[in-house]
Write a structure and sequence with these properties.
The chain has 135 residues and is mostly helical. The protein starts with a helix and ends in a 14-residue tail after the last helix. Helices cover 52% and strands 0% of the residues.
């Protein structure tokens, strides 16, 4: 029974983080000339599913139909190039919990958070890697 309670509590926490994200994003829209804090965007928008360390160990992992991408895995370094990641963040991925963020993040914010993910969690990722079809 304890496991069920913890799972329920974790799922509820993850859901609250996701629901709170759009409200806090509006307040952080970059002003003209303001720099973008990609780390803060990642923590606010992405970490609920992908984890604070980019390893997919998050509160939401058990509540999602498909496990989130682990950015620290060697497979991610091989399969994800920058342009593909930008498209996924912007447009989402059909048949997965990954929804597009174009309505909540500017193109500059999307590019900044992708660059943050690549630098922080995928530092060995080549930009010339072919885009994956099933990931």
């Amino acid at each position: 029974m304890k496991l069920d309670f913890r799972f329920s509590q974790a799922a509820t926490s993850a859901l609250l983080l996701v629901l709170a994200a759009p409200v806090s994003l509006a307040a952080d829209a970059p002003q003209s000339g303001a720099s973008i804090d990609a780390g803060a965007i990642y923590l606010r928008v992405c970490s609920a599913c992908h984890g604070e360390k980019g390893d997919a160990n998050s509160l939401a992992q058990g509540a999602l139909a498909k496990r989130p991408r682990n950015f620290t895995a060697p497979e991610a370094r091989l399969r994800l190039n920058r342009e593909y990641m930008i498209a996924i963040v912007r447009d989402g991925r059909p048949h997965t919990p990954m929804t597009g963020r174009a309505s909540r993040l500017s193109q500059q914010e999307i590019e900044a958070v992708v660059d943050y993910i690549r630098a922080r969690f995928m530092s060995a990722a080549p930009d010339s890697a072919p885009a994956a079809r099933g990931s």
